[in-house]
Amino acid sequence: MNPGIALGIIAAVVVGTIALGLFGVRGVRMDPHEYIVGGRRIGALLLWLLLAGEIYTTFTFLGAAGWAYGRGAPSYYILCYGTVAFILSYFFAPPLHRLARERGFLTGPDFFADRYGSRVLATIVALLGFVMLVPYATLQLTGVQILLRVAGYGAIDPLAAVGIAFALIAVFTYASGLRGAAWASVAKDGLVLIGVIFAGIVLPIHFFGSPAGAFDAVLRDHPGWLTIAGPSAPSGITWVISTTILTGFGFFMWPQSMAAIYSARDEDTLRRNAVFLPFYQLMLLLVFFAGFTALEIVPGLKGTEADQSFLLVVQKTYPSWVLGIVAAAGVLAGLVPASVQLLAAASIVAKNVFGDNGVASDGGAQTRLTRILVLVVALLAFGFWALAKTTLVGLLLIAYNGITQLFPGVMLGLRAQRPPALAVGAGIVAGILVLIAFAVIGTGQIAGINTGLIALAVNVVVLALVTALAPRRAAQPETANA
Amino acid sequence: MRGRTVAVVCAAIPALALTFGVALANRLEPRVLGLPFVLAWIVLWVLLTPAFMLVAYRSERA
After folding, report:
1. Which of B14, B35, B54 is facing A87, going by the closest CB pair?
2. Cα-based distances in Å from A193 to A102, A187, A404
């Protein structure tokens, strides 16, 4: 047990990754176009890493294992929703990219501004994205804090450590923009792959003789843990299906995911990515193995403690340097996606809330404002992190419920015949109000259905009603609001 | 438009298997390589999805 070794490895890995990211952008001149969408020249391999960045976040690394540990079979939804999202993206990502290139979109809300001819709608969408990105970035911070606490064997102050790590990543994002983050993803995904293989294959073999060996032990001690409960049960099969659909719809609605779609070199790159990305999901199976192993080896963790599950097993069983490598993988899985999220949150506010409404609207001022906002969002997420106490999956689901409200607007906006901006905006606002009402009551599911999906249904109904009642207009010609 | 129809069908099959199909597969037995049947079902369909999507992709190229 030597906290110096484990923490030293983490520090070296974080600094090395930042250096790689900065190396990737050397000599690139930063205008908003380059800073936010990598000059729209990001090829198949880097794009793969950007799009898949969502999968290998600290949520996957710790949260999925924590859920397997704390909840059992409902966690299987995590394996399904990304795959469903990739299938959907095969159809909508290429036309979205084409529109973005033809009409020069930089941010997610740009799509709404252009397709619905409404800056107000774009501002609402930007603010929603911003608000929902704060819990998402907070999720990464929570993960990093857990990793540093376990890797430090309790010897360091996690608040200070997270502060330092997050300050580093904010400065990195400030300097490098999207292309640097994509380069940092290369290091992150490589190391996370090693960490996940270790946790999901080496650990279970060590204790149970085979990767799936933990299942027999889990079944003996927790009968029913490995199958999903009935339709009306809390977190039963209805919840699993409704949550898969909700999060599958929401997956690419994040501002950073839409920017990743814009940043592709061409439409075919996106199609081929959609075909093969599901293979990436299989890593999650190994994460489940790790979580179920932890359930047998370090039983009794409650609530948010479950997120530490397999790390505690590594800490108990292996020397400091092994813990250091596994934890470093996890720290990168938190910090690199956090940098993409900071950039997305900052760019939508800089562009769609300030720039398009006449504040700091020229290129140089935009890049400067985006960079400053990166630091502001980092501070906000840090503040939210210091206050909020929920599990990683809990945080993720809060954020997903909100962002998925953009799905109807994005799908309908791809069409030639589009509903009026008022209808799309009313739908989004109605969906968010329903979510707030459920949050006030404190319920996440009704008759087993994820309340986020109920909010989405209300959103669609309101959208349809307002469209039907709104004064008829001629179909907006494609050039109406250039 | 025929290519597009093939693509939609190819995409719908794994999408349905990974949502509503999970309800039909929600059993412990038979275990597959030690996995509970429902988890094995999900893993199988995640593996099959790229194959279906490749057919979709090819059908639109043709």
Report:
1. B14
2. 37, 10, 29
Residues 3 to 62 of B: which have CB under 8 A from any A CB? 7-8, 11, 14-15, 18-20, 22-23, 26-28, 31, 33-36, 38-39, 42-43, 45-47, 49-50, 53-54, 56-57
Strand partners, A277: none
Nearest chain B residue to A224, by CA: B28
Residue A241 has a pLDDT of 93
Task: Report which residue type is found at A150.
Answer: V
| Predicted pLDDT at A482 | 37
Give the other-Cβ count within 10 Å of A43's Cβ.
13
Q: Which of A137, A147, A161, A186 is nearest to A18 (CA)?
A: A186
Dihedral in degrees, nearest 10, Cα atoms A344, A349, A353, A359: -120
pLDDT digits (tens, 9 = 90+) for A233-269: 778 899 999 999 999 999 899 888 888 888 888 888 8
Q: Distance (Å, rounded) from C-alpha A54 to C-alpha B4?
A: 28
Tens-digit pLDDT profile for residues B10-48: 999 999 999 998 888 888 888 888 889 999 999 999 999
Cα gap A111→A115, rounded to integer Å: 6
Band of residue A43 on the pLDDT scale cut at 50, 70, 90:
low
Under 8 Å CB-to-CB from A470, ≥6 apart: which residues? A420, A422, A423
Instruction: Return the HEC string of B15-45.
Output: HHHCCHHHHHCCCCCCCECCECHHHHHHHHH
Structure tokens at A32: 């908003």
Q: For A188-208, how does the pLDDT look when each residue is reduced to its tens digit (9 = 90+)?
A: 888 888 888 888 888 888 888
Using CA atoms, how far apart are residues A443 and B50, in angstroms rounded to an integer? 36
Q: How far apart are CA A482 and CA A465, in angstroms?
A: 28
**What are A212's two structure tokens?**
């799936």
Whether the per-residue pLDDT at A159 is higher than 70: the answer is yes
For the entire predicted model, the pTM comes to 0.88
What gap in Å lies between CA A65 and CA A289, rounded to an integer? 8
SS3 A449: strand
**What angle, 0 to 180 degrees and rounded to 10, lies between the N-to-C axes of helices A283-297 and A214-221?**
50
Contact of A100 with chain B, judged by CB distance below 8 Å, is answered with no
User: pLDDT confidence of A454, banded at 50, 70, 90?
Assistant: very high
Q: Locate the chain B residue with the closest alpha carbon to A243.
A: B19
| Spatial CA neighbour of A292 closest among A81, A78, A66, A76 | A66
Confidence class for position A479, pLDDT limits 50, 70, 90: very low
Q: What number is the ipTM of this complex?
A: 0.95
Cβ contact (<8 Å) for A241 and B28?
no
Three-state secondary structure call for residue A446: strand
